[in-house]
Amino acid sequence: MIEHYPVLHREVLNFFSPLKEGVVVDATLGGGGHSHLILKNFPHIRVVGIDKDPEAIERASERLRDFKDRFTAVHSSFKDVDRVLKDLGLQEVSGFLFDLGVSLYQLKEDRGFSFQKDQSLDMRMDPTSRLTAYEVVNQYPKNLLEKIIFEYGEEKFARKIARLIAEERKKKPIETTGELAEIIKKAYPPALRRSRIHPATKTFQAIRIEVNNELGEIKEGVSKAIDLLEKGGIIQVISFHSLEDRIVKNIFREGKKLKKLQLLTKKPITPTEEEIKENPPSRSAKLRVARRV
Fold first, then answer.
1. Measuring CA to CA, which of 8, 16, 222, 249 is 20 to 30 A from 241?
2. What average pLDDT does this structure show over 248-260?
3. Strand arrangement, sheet containing 261-263
């Protein structure tokens, strides 16, 4: 059995290799995979792990218990990274890692992220937050639903999907992921309903992004992280779709223009064929890296 490694782990470790000591912030702790490799390979580095999912904090803390003297977990959104570090008495850090993918744990949980199982429409990464997928699907005006599905999902059938959702919810509320997936499937031409990518994929992505304010949090969190890096510090961001990557690219370009950053990747780094074979979900990952100047 192949040991599962977090996405682009070799590249992440390579870019952090100039750091001999200091603090690295794993801004998207998840299952603790990247943090584990950083702690294991850099014995003089301390890691602060941030996640808005309390279950992720619990899981990662258990996994990293052998490093508890060098590891601190904080339940928070990474958009509040300035407050998190201030509370820990840290003014600057040596490195930041953002892995913007949804973890496999979240997809497997009964939280409505996946259309593979019939689950309640939730999609909250932080279960204490107010907005759920149920409210987006059943209460958002049709034109706003269309806009979200088109822009966040880059879905060409957004208009028809939004119309069908609006028609169905008049009859009764749409309550589960299975119900929603079936409605979306009807918006697709029959020839495209059995393609390799499920018809609901892009719409589910769009609703998840809306529920968790993902793009707004990326802009805020990555921008704050750059200002919290010490001179020579490294920031790495792994994105999984074009909207995320575009935001990161623009923030990094602006940082370069303002003479805050030196870009270490002219183009994003993508997984090798070997990694994709080991870990198929990594195929869409893109890594951008910069150094504080």
1. 16
2. 98
3. 71-75, 45-51, 22-26, 93-99, 229-239, 286-292, 261-263
Tokens of 81: 């990274």
- Asked whether residue 120 falls in the same domain as residue 101, the answer is no
Tokens representing 251 are 């923030």
* Residue that is written with structure tokens 């999609």 in the block: 123
With bands split at pLDDT 50, 70 and 90, how would you rate the model's confidence at 107?
low
- Burial class, 191, CB count within 10 angstroms (exposed 0-12 / middle 13-18 / buried 19+): exposed
For residue 196, the domain's CATH number is 1.10.150.170
Domain region containing 282: 9-105+215-292
pTM: 0.90
Contact of 119 with 65, CB cutoff 8 Å: no
Give the CA distances from residue 235 to residues 63, 169, 242, in Å, rounded to whole numbers and listed in that order.
24, 44, 19
For the chain, the domain total comes to 2
* CATH at residue 253: 3.40.50.150
